């Protein structure tokens, strides 16, 4: 996940012409977001059986595990952003070009619309409700909802940056699992409050198909601001040093301080 230093490369005009793999990445972002909305929002639909209602745990796991699965499947193709907030974060940190970022966001939004449309097509009309549209709890105002969406998006985005930092040599686990768990834990907190969007495309798809646009600006501004904040803080404060040896020394000193505490 190296930074783009050349300005021409950062704009990315030549990327579309010279790199055929970029078109596979666009398809991966489309399909990944489509399945995220189809499965994740599908978990929000209730009343399949009498007395049945989806739980917060069910919804949280559906979104988190879906992200893990998709990231494992197509992470090597597109980076598996499947979220405009992640793409904006990668753009400001200069890990993707401007052209790629714009097309990623278009593909993500189109995928979300298709996912919500498929969900509407395969579920009975009397239980569809809002198709899993994120809605603000009436006990909080829009400013509070904006703050919550900003903060819960900050967590998975900074996890993405930390797990994918090519300078680190201490990460031994699975990056897709870490990212998916960060999404799950934020859903466990925020589903009853804001619906836990943390993804403008995830809210955009159901909004288009259901026609519900209440407080929709919150689900665009909050996640994008949270993603940008995470990208800037990680890039300029937390990113591992260039020199692997210096990083090893830094980690050894940290471990010594921890053990002596």
Automatic annotation (TrEMBL):
Pfam family, one: MIP
Gene Ontology molecular function: any one: water channel activity
Keywords: Membrane, Repeat, Transmembrane, Transmembrane helix, Transport
Compartments where located: Membrane
CDD domains: MIP
Gene Ontology cellular component list: plasma membrane
SUPFAM superfamilies for the chain: Aquaporin-like
Gene3D superfamilies noted in UniProt: Glycerol uptake facilitator protein
Transmembrane segments: 26-48, 60-80, 101-122, 142-163, 175-197, 217-237
InterPro entries associated with the record: Aquaporin-like, Aquaporin_transptr, MIP
Membrane topology listed for this record: Multi-pass membrane protein
Signal peptide (residue range): none
GO biological process: one example: chemical homeostasis
NCBIfam families linked: MIP
Subunit structure: Homotetramer.
Recorded family membership: Belongs to the MIP/aquaporin (TC 1.A.8) family.
Protein name (database record): Aquaporin 4
Organism: Penaeus vannamei
